[in-house]
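2 proteins. here.
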Amino acid sequence: MGSCRNQDRRDFISKILVVSAGVMGIVSAGYSGNGYRGGGGSGSGTTATLTSEQKDWLLYMYQEEKVARDVYITLGKAYPSENTFANIQNSEQNHMNACKNLCVKYGVSIAGINESIVGQFILPNLQELYNTCVAEGQKSLLDAVKIGELIEITDINDLQKASIGMPSDVVNVFNNLMQGSYNHLAAFQSRIRALS
Protein backbone atom coordinates (compact mmCIF):
# COMPACT_ATOMS: atom_id res chain seq x y z
CA MET A 1 0.00 0.00 0.00
CA GLY A 2 2.84 2.39 0.87
CA SER A 3 4.54 1.85 -2.49
CA CYS A 4 1.24 2.48 -4.29
CA ARG A 5 0.80 5.73 -2.36
CA ASN A 6 4.37 6.78 -3.20
CA GLN A 7 3.70 6.08 -6.88
CA ASP A 8 0.53 8.21 -6.70
CA ARG A 9 2.58 11.04 -5.17
CA ARG A 10 5.26 10.74 -7.88
CA ASP A 11 2.56 10.77 -10.56
CA PHE A 12 1.02 13.86 -9.00
CA ILE A 13 4.36 15.66 -8.73
CA SER A 14 5.01 14.86 -12.40
CA LYS A 15 1.60 16.26 -13.30
CA ILE A 16 2.29 19.51 -11.44
CA LEU A 17 5.62 19.90 -13.21
CA VAL A 18 3.98 19.32 -16.59
CA VAL A 19 1.25 21.84 -15.83
CA SER A 20 3.82 24.34 -14.62
CA ALA A 21 5.85 23.91 -17.80
CA GLY A 22 2.68 24.43 -19.81
CA VAL A 23 2.95 28.20 -19.56
CA MET A 24 4.63 28.22 -22.96
CA GLY A 25 1.40 26.88 -24.43
CA ILE A 26 -0.54 29.98 -23.39
CA VAL A 27 0.32 31.86 -26.58
CA SER A 28 -0.92 29.09 -28.83
CA ALA A 29 -4.05 28.78 -26.71
CA GLY A 30 -4.97 32.37 -27.51
CA TYR A 31 -4.27 33.93 -24.11
CA SER A 32 -1.30 36.06 -25.12
CA GLY A 33 -1.00 39.72 -24.29
CA ASN A 34 -1.64 42.52 -26.72
CA GLY A 35 1.33 41.66 -28.91
CA TYR A 36 3.75 44.37 -27.85
CA ARG A 37 7.36 43.44 -28.34
CA GLY A 38 10.45 45.14 -27.04
CA GLY A 39 13.30 45.13 -24.59
CA GLY A 40 13.15 44.15 -20.97
CA GLY A 41 14.79 47.23 -19.46
CA SER A 42 12.96 50.12 -17.87
CA GLY A 43 13.99 53.72 -17.72
CA SER A 44 13.15 56.17 -14.98
CA GLY A 45 9.52 57.23 -15.19
CA THR A 46 8.76 55.02 -18.18
CA THR A 47 7.18 51.63 -18.52
CA ALA A 48 9.21 49.02 -20.35
CA THR A 49 7.66 47.24 -23.30
CA LEU A 50 7.30 43.53 -22.72
CA THR A 51 7.41 40.73 -25.26
CA SER A 52 4.33 38.58 -25.75
CA GLU A 53 6.04 35.78 -23.82
CA GLN A 54 6.75 38.09 -20.88
CA LYS A 55 3.13 39.21 -20.87
CA ASP A 56 2.07 35.58 -20.89
CA TRP A 57 4.20 35.02 -17.79
CA LEU A 58 2.49 37.92 -15.99
CA LEU A 59 -0.94 36.49 -16.77
CA TYR A 60 0.20 33.00 -15.82
CA MET A 61 1.60 34.10 -12.46
CA TYR A 62 -1.56 36.08 -11.69
CA GLN A 63 -3.63 32.95 -12.33
CA GLU A 64 -1.16 30.67 -10.53
CA GLU A 65 -1.42 32.82 -7.40
CA LYS A 66 -5.21 32.46 -7.71
CA VAL A 67 -4.79 28.68 -7.86
CA ALA A 68 -2.92 28.82 -4.55
CA ARG A 69 -5.52 31.08 -2.93
CA ASP A 70 -8.47 29.07 -4.21
CA VAL A 71 -6.98 25.69 -3.24
CA TYR A 72 -6.33 27.00 0.26
CA ILE A 73 -9.86 28.40 0.52
CA THR A 74 -11.33 25.07 -0.58
CA LEU A 75 -9.10 22.90 1.60
CA GLY A 76 -9.59 25.30 4.49
CA LYS A 77 -13.33 24.59 4.30
CA ALA A 78 -12.63 20.85 4.17
CA TYR A 79 -10.36 21.08 7.24
CA PRO A 80 -11.67 24.04 9.29
CA SER A 81 -9.45 23.22 12.28
CA GLU A 82 -6.28 23.61 10.14
CA ASN A 83 -5.44 27.31 10.48
CA THR A 84 -2.54 27.17 8.01
CA PHE A 85 -4.90 27.42 5.04
CA ALA A 86 -6.82 30.39 6.46
CA ASN A 87 -3.61 32.24 7.35
CA ILE A 88 -1.94 31.71 3.97
CA GLN A 89 -4.97 32.31 1.72
CA ASN A 90 -5.00 35.98 2.81
CA SER A 91 -1.36 36.31 1.84
CA GLU A 92 -2.11 34.68 -1.53
CA GLN A 93 -4.73 37.37 -2.15
CA ASN A 94 -1.96 39.93 -1.69
CA HIS A 95 0.17 37.97 -4.16
CA MET A 96 -2.71 38.03 -6.64
CA ASN A 97 -3.11 41.78 -6.19
CA ALA A 98 0.60 42.33 -6.88
CA CYS A 99 0.46 40.26 -10.09
CA LYS A 100 -2.78 41.92 -11.17
CA ASN A 101 -1.18 45.34 -10.76
CA LEU A 102 1.68 44.23 -13.03
CA CYS A 103 -0.80 42.98 -15.63
CA VAL A 104 -2.61 46.32 -15.60
CA LYS A 105 0.64 48.30 -15.73
CA TYR A 106 1.96 46.35 -18.73
CA GLY A 107 -1.30 46.15 -20.66
CA VAL A 108 -1.94 42.43 -20.17
CA SER A 109 -5.60 41.58 -20.74
CA ILE A 110 -7.20 40.07 -17.66
CA ALA A 111 -10.66 40.05 -19.20
CA GLY A 112 -12.66 37.03 -18.19
CA ILE A 113 -10.96 36.61 -14.81
CA ASN A 114 -13.43 36.80 -11.96
CA GLU A 115 -11.53 36.71 -8.67
CA SER A 116 -14.73 36.27 -6.68
CA ILE A 117 -15.40 32.83 -8.19
CA VAL A 118 -13.30 30.28 -6.33
CA GLY A 119 -11.99 27.46 -8.52
CA GLN A 120 -12.55 29.08 -11.93
CA PHE A 121 -9.63 29.85 -14.27
CA ILE A 122 -9.25 31.05 -17.87
CA LEU A 123 -6.12 28.94 -18.47
CA PRO A 124 -7.07 25.28 -18.94
CA ASN A 125 -3.84 23.88 -17.49
CA LEU A 126 -4.33 25.90 -14.29
CA GLN A 127 -7.95 24.78 -14.10
CA GLU A 128 -6.64 21.21 -14.22
CA LEU A 129 -4.03 22.02 -11.57
CA TYR A 130 -6.69 23.41 -9.24
CA ASN A 131 -8.99 20.41 -9.75
CA THR A 132 -6.15 17.94 -9.16
CA CYS A 133 -4.85 19.73 -6.05
CA VAL A 134 -8.31 19.83 -4.47
CA ALA A 135 -9.00 16.16 -5.26
CA GLU A 136 -5.65 15.09 -3.79
CA GLY A 137 -5.97 17.38 -0.79
CA GLN A 138 -9.40 16.08 0.16
CA LYS A 139 -8.02 12.57 0.77
CA SER A 140 -6.68 13.50 4.23
CA LEU A 141 -5.35 16.45 6.20
CA LEU A 142 -1.79 15.23 5.68
CA ASP A 143 -2.40 15.06 1.93
CA ALA A 144 -3.85 18.57 2.08
CA VAL A 145 -0.78 20.14 3.70
CA LYS A 146 1.44 18.19 1.28
CA ILE A 147 -0.53 19.83 -1.54
CA GLY A 148 0.28 23.17 0.06
CA GLU A 149 3.97 22.24 0.04
CA LEU A 150 3.85 21.26 -3.65
CA ILE A 151 1.99 24.43 -4.62
CA GLU A 152 4.58 26.63 -2.92
CA ILE A 153 7.51 24.74 -4.49
CA THR A 154 5.87 25.09 -7.90
CA ASP A 155 5.19 28.78 -7.32
CA ILE A 156 8.81 29.48 -6.32
CA ASN A 157 10.13 27.65 -9.39
CA ASP A 158 7.75 29.48 -11.73
CA LEU A 159 8.51 32.89 -10.22
CA GLN A 160 12.22 32.23 -10.77
CA LYS A 161 11.62 31.29 -14.41
CA ALA A 162 9.23 34.20 -14.96
CA SER A 163 11.77 36.72 -13.62
CA ILE A 164 14.33 36.03 -16.34
CA GLY A 165 14.73 39.07 -18.58
CA MET A 166 11.94 41.04 -16.88
CA PRO A 167 12.17 44.76 -16.02
CA SER A 168 13.51 45.52 -12.55
CA ASP A 169 10.10 46.40 -11.11
CA VAL A 170 8.68 43.01 -12.12
CA VAL A 171 11.76 41.23 -10.75
CA ASN A 172 11.37 43.11 -7.44
CA VAL A 173 7.71 42.11 -7.14
CA PHE A 174 8.46 38.49 -8.01
CA ASN A 175 11.34 38.41 -5.48
CA ASN A 176 8.94 39.63 -2.78
CA LEU A 177 6.40 36.98 -3.79
CA MET A 178 9.12 34.32 -3.65
CA GLN A 179 10.02 35.37 -0.12
CA GLY A 180 6.38 35.01 0.87
CA SER A 181 6.23 31.60 -0.80
CA TYR A 182 9.32 30.44 1.10
CA ASN A 183 7.54 31.45 4.33
CA HIS A 184 4.41 29.55 3.25
CA LEU A 185 6.54 26.53 2.33
CA ALA A 186 8.11 26.51 5.78
CA ALA A 187 4.67 26.65 7.40
CA PHE A 188 3.40 23.70 5.37
CA GLN A 189 6.55 21.67 5.98
CA SER A 190 6.20 22.28 9.71
CA ARG A 191 2.65 20.93 9.58
CA ILE A 192 3.75 17.92 7.52
CA ARG A 193 6.30 17.06 10.21
CA ALA A 194 3.68 17.47 12.93
CA LEU A 195 1.15 15.25 11.14
CA SER A 196 3.57 12.55 9.94
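next one coming up
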Amino acid sequence: MNMRKLLRVLHRDFGYFFTGMTLIYCVTGILLNHTRDWNPYYSIDIRKVELNLPLDTSLINKELLTSKLEPIGVQGLRSFYYPKPGTVKLFVSDGTVTSDLGSGSALVERSYRRPVLYQLNMLHKNLPKSWWTWFSDIFAIALMAITISGLFLVKGKNGITHRGVLLIIAGLALPLVAIILL
Protein backbone atom coordinates (compact mmCIF):
# COMPACT_ATOMS: atom_id res chain seq x y z
CA MET A 1 0.00 0.00 0.00
CA ASN A 2 1.51 3.33 -0.98
CA MET A 3 1.77 6.23 1.46
CA ARG A 4 -0.98 8.37 -0.10
CA LYS A 5 -3.46 5.46 0.03
CA LEU A 6 -2.56 4.74 3.69
CA LEU A 7 -3.08 8.40 4.57
CA ARG A 8 -6.45 8.38 2.81
CA VAL A 9 -7.55 5.29 4.75
CA LEU A 10 -6.37 6.74 8.09
CA HIS A 11 -7.97 10.10 7.36
CA ARG A 12 -11.28 8.52 6.33
CA ASP A 13 -11.56 5.91 9.10
CA PHE A 14 -10.40 8.14 11.98
CA GLY A 15 -12.66 10.87 10.63
CA TYR A 16 -15.68 8.59 10.65
CA PHE A 17 -14.92 7.05 14.03
CA PHE A 18 -14.37 10.36 15.82
CA THR A 19 -17.23 12.31 14.18
CA GLY A 20 -19.36 12.20 17.35
CA MET A 21 -16.53 13.34 19.60
CA THR A 22 -15.57 16.10 17.18
CA LEU A 23 -19.12 17.45 17.12
CA ILE A 24 -19.43 17.23 20.93
CA TYR A 25 -16.16 19.13 21.42
CA CYS A 26 -17.15 21.73 18.83
CA VAL A 27 -20.56 22.40 20.42
CA THR A 28 -19.31 22.40 24.01
CA GLY A 29 -16.30 24.51 23.05
CA ILE A 30 -18.65 27.17 21.69
CA LEU A 31 -20.82 26.94 24.81
CA LEU A 32 -17.82 27.23 27.13
CA ASN A 33 -16.51 30.20 25.15
CA HIS A 34 -19.70 32.12 25.88
CA THR A 35 -20.22 31.56 29.61
CA ARG A 36 -20.40 35.35 30.05
CA ASP A 37 -23.49 35.41 27.83
CA TRP A 38 -25.34 32.44 29.30
CA ASN A 39 -24.82 29.53 31.66
CA PRO A 40 -24.24 26.33 29.65
CA TYR A 41 -24.60 24.17 32.77
CA TYR A 42 -27.69 25.49 34.52
CA SER A 43 -30.92 27.25 33.73
CA ILE A 44 -31.69 29.88 36.38
CA ASP A 45 -35.31 30.59 37.29
CA ILE A 46 -35.89 33.87 39.18
CA ARG A 47 -39.30 34.88 40.46
CA LYS A 48 -40.75 37.22 43.05
CA VAL A 49 -43.20 35.85 45.63
CA GLU A 50 -44.92 36.93 48.82
CA LEU A 51 -43.48 35.09 51.82
CA ASN A 52 -44.78 37.35 54.61
CA LEU A 53 -42.35 36.39 57.35
CA PRO A 54 -42.55 38.13 60.73
CA LEU A 55 -40.38 41.19 61.35
CA ASP A 56 -39.33 39.71 64.70
CA THR A 57 -36.46 37.38 63.80
CA SER A 58 -36.78 35.51 67.10
CA LEU A 59 -40.03 34.02 65.69
CA ILE A 60 -38.32 32.70 62.56
CA ASN A 61 -37.22 29.08 62.73
CA LYS A 62 -36.79 26.16 60.36
CA GLU A 63 -40.35 24.88 60.89
CA LEU A 64 -41.93 28.28 60.10
CA LEU A 65 -39.75 28.72 57.04
CA THR A 66 -40.56 25.23 55.76
CA SER A 67 -44.29 25.88 56.17
CA LYS A 68 -43.98 29.20 54.26
CA LEU A 69 -41.95 27.63 51.45
CA GLU A 70 -44.28 24.71 50.73
CA PRO A 71 -47.15 26.79 49.25
CA ILE A 72 -44.76 28.45 46.78
CA GLY A 73 -43.35 25.10 45.67
CA VAL A 74 -39.91 25.37 47.28
CA GLN A 75 -38.55 22.44 49.24
CA GLY A 76 -35.37 21.28 50.88
CA LEU A 77 -34.55 24.08 53.32
CA ARG A 78 -30.91 23.56 54.30
CA SER A 79 -30.07 26.66 56.30
CA PHE A 80 -30.71 30.37 56.64
CA TYR A 81 -29.03 33.51 57.91
CA TYR A 82 -29.52 37.28 58.11
CA PRO A 83 -27.14 39.07 55.68
CA LYS A 84 -28.40 42.46 56.91
CA PRO A 85 -31.12 43.69 59.25
CA GLY A 86 -34.60 43.07 57.85
CA THR A 87 -33.43 40.43 55.35
CA VAL A 88 -33.28 36.66 55.66
CA LYS A 89 -31.55 34.46 53.11
CA LEU A 90 -32.59 30.82 52.83
CA PHE A 91 -30.57 28.09 51.18
CA VAL A 92 -32.77 25.42 49.63
CA SER A 93 -31.92 22.26 47.70
CA ASP A 94 -31.94 23.92 44.28
CA GLY A 95 -31.17 27.57 45.01
CA THR A 96 -31.85 30.45 47.39
CA VAL A 97 -34.73 32.54 48.67
CA THR A 98 -34.04 36.09 49.87
CA SER A 99 -36.86 37.69 51.82
CA ASP A 100 -37.36 41.32 52.79
CA LEU A 101 -39.04 41.06 56.19
CA GLY A 102 -40.49 44.57 55.97
CA SER A 103 -42.34 44.18 52.67
CA GLY A 104 -43.02 40.45 52.90
CA SER A 105 -41.73 39.90 49.39
CA ALA A 106 -39.06 37.38 48.50
CA LEU A 107 -36.86 36.61 45.53
CA VAL A 108 -36.66 32.91 44.67
CA GLU A 109 -33.62 31.88 42.61
CA ARG A 110 -33.53 28.25 41.55
CA SER A 111 -31.16 26.49 39.20
CA TYR A 112 -31.72 23.42 37.08
CA ARG A 113 -29.15 21.40 35.17
CA ARG A 114 -29.54 21.82 31.43
CA PRO A 115 -30.33 18.34 30.11
CA VAL A 116 -27.66 16.88 27.82
CA LEU A 117 -25.61 20.14 27.69
CA TYR A 118 -24.55 19.75 31.33
CA GLN A 119 -23.30 16.20 30.74
CA LEU A 120 -21.58 17.12 27.44
CA ASN A 121 -19.77 20.02 29.12
CA MET A 122 -18.62 17.68 31.89
CA LEU A 123 -17.15 15.39 29.21
CA HIS A 124 -15.38 18.36 27.62
CA LYS A 125 -13.90 19.32 30.98
CA ASN A 126 -12.89 15.66 31.61
CA LEU A 127 -15.02 15.23 34.72
CA PRO A 128 -15.22 11.42 34.42
CA LYS A 129 -11.38 11.19 34.64
CA SER A 130 -9.96 7.59 34.57
CA TRP A 131 -10.70 5.89 31.23
CA TRP A 132 -12.18 9.08 29.76
CA THR A 133 -8.79 10.78 30.08
CA TRP A 134 -7.23 8.04 27.96
CA PHE A 135 -10.03 8.21 25.39
CA SER A 136 -9.68 12.01 25.21
CA ASP A 137 -5.92 11.68 24.71
CA ILE A 138 -6.46 9.10 21.95
CA PHE A 139 -9.00 11.49 20.40
CA ALA A 140 -6.46 14.35 20.46
CA ILE A 141 -3.81 12.14 18.83
CA ALA A 142 -6.36 10.99 16.23
CA LEU A 143 -7.22 14.62 15.44
CA MET A 144 -3.53 15.24 14.83
CA ALA A 145 -3.41 12.18 12.55
CA ILE A 146 -6.53 13.33 10.69
CA THR A 147 -5.04 16.79 10.26
CA ILE A 148 -1.62 15.63 9.13
CA SER A 149 -2.97 12.97 6.79
CA GLY A 150 -5.36 15.51 5.29
CA LEU A 151 -2.42 17.75 4.38
CA PHE A 152 -1.13 15.21 1.88
CA LEU A 153 -4.35 14.00 0.26
CA VAL A 154 -4.58 16.63 -2.47
CA LYS A 155 -1.98 16.96 -5.23
CA GLY A 156 -1.21 19.81 -7.59
CA LYS A 157 -2.05 23.50 -7.36
CA ASN A 158 -4.55 22.94 -4.50
CA GLY A 159 -2.13 20.71 -2.56
CA ILE A 160 0.21 21.43 0.32
CA THR A 161 3.06 22.64 -1.89
CA HIS A 162 1.05 25.49 -3.41
CA ARG A 163 -2.28 26.83 -2.19
CA GLY A 164 -2.25 24.57 0.88
CA VAL A 165 0.90 26.09 2.36
CA LEU A 166 -0.57 29.60 2.08
CA LEU A 167 -3.72 28.53 3.90
CA ILE A 168 -1.67 26.77 6.60
CA ILE A 169 0.39 29.92 7.17
CA ALA A 170 -2.78 32.04 7.34
CA GLY A 171 -4.36 29.58 9.76
CA LEU A 172 -1.28 29.62 12.01
CA ALA A 173 -1.07 33.41 11.92
CA LEU A 174 -4.37 33.93 13.76
CA PRO A 175 -3.40 31.98 16.93
CA LEU A 176 0.01 33.70 16.87
CA VAL A 177 -1.67 37.11 16.77
CA ALA A 178 -3.91 36.06 19.66
CA ILE A 179 -0.88 34.92 21.69
CA ILE A 180 0.94 38.19 21.02
CA LEU A 181 -2.11 40.22 22.07
CA LEU A 182 -2.46 38.34 25.38
